[in-house]
Amino acid sequence: MATDFDVLIVGAGISGISAAWHLQHHRPGTSFAMLEREDGFGGTWYTHKFPGIRSDSDLYTFGFHFKPWVGPPIATAAEIQAYLGEVIAENGLGPHIRYRQSVETADWDSADQCWRLGVRQGDGSLASLSCRFLWMAQGYYHHRKGYWPQWEGMESFTGTITHTEEWDESLDYAGKRVALIGSGATAATVIPAMAKTAAQVTMVQRSPTYFFPAANVNETAELLRPLDLDPAWVHEIVRRKNNYDQAEITRRCREEPEVVTAELLAAVQALLPEGFDMAHFTPSYPPWRQRLAFVPDGDLFAAVRDGKAGVVTGQIARFTPDGIAMADGTNVPADVIVLATGFDLCVMGDIRFSHDGIAIDPADTITWRGMMFTQLPNMVWVFGYFRASWTLRSDLVSQFVCRLLDHMDATGATSVVPRLRPEDEGMALEPFFDLNDFNPHYVQRSLHLLPKAGDKAEWRHSQDYWTEKTVLPAIDLTSPEFAYTRPNPVAAIAAE
To answer: What superfamily would CATH give domain 148-218+270-341?
Structure first.
């Protein structure tokens, strides 16, 4: 049966643009569209509006391998949006994007071997679209909706309470006292930006986070650029060097965590006022158990050193009419309270999946390498890396899908779904992520919503780019964990 498209991509952010570029360059003639819920491209970099919004990964690895990055390693949202806009314009991807399109349902029709989608249009109407392959590139958290913990007395606070994920750009905090709850990369971004005009910004944290302060400049790039080299060469060299450095820091965090901890804390202490209590920046867990937050030019610590920002560590007892009361009796006065308390996880876009009309809960499926799932044919979900740039895995997934589609075309397959092999039957099922290795709070809160993992490499999301960059391109697409449907017996025989 003919479908509206060969491939439908859900999302027009980093992952969706990667998918579109690879389809266009490696599978010319494939019909595809990107369905974007917002009225603009960019995903995170379009919806995040909080003060100081910037990347926390370097743009040489967060950017695409096919589009040189020529700016500073850590970039603002506006700079990233401009970069993505150039990618779209230079590659003619704009006509493929359909804005204000929210996918609500997806039913796999086994008789017609296609996905049938219910798509909410910008005008509120519901449209139907069909495709051969569904490419989920919408990310992993709810845009414009953050996680709101509840504390006693929140309703009594007389000022403004807001969340970084739901930022109102009209909020005027100039000359006001701000209490920001949270201690991760978002807090490290927002605090120095707000401190420029606020009377005072206080970071209220339950426990400290590891920070890595350094100049927002890449020495290798600065060394190479004056040599009048092709920008693509500079980009690739720096990209490889940064990936090597990231692999090395990850290795050291595992093999010598005490040494790395001492180095990280020393770098922070050097930027703080003399006598500052380092307990506020000394985490209780080993480095890399949660994401290591990069602080460009040490701007967070400069705000503390200049007296524009402070830190309070401990448990919040309650909100009061004029601020926050801590369990130890400390009071944090505030006119504005900002919650930088993390994401609200979104599993596969909150789409209601079904197979021939029978509902499929993603939590009841088993993942194949963190991108495909049992019970869900012809579908891939892009879930990137936490310890390396998200885009690195987006590109690996894009390359894999194009190769998979080529293989299906060559062998007459109309669908593929991961299946457990005889040796996998009865294997122990585990959470999607290994919490002993990586355990941010927003992941811990939502693990029950995610697909399950197995105890073998094929059935896990390794979060290890330095292994996957070799393993994924070499995967044998005839392996028994792939169950193909081949209506054409001639093609099926040729595939054997």
So the answer is: FAD/NAD(P)-binding domain (3.50.50.60)
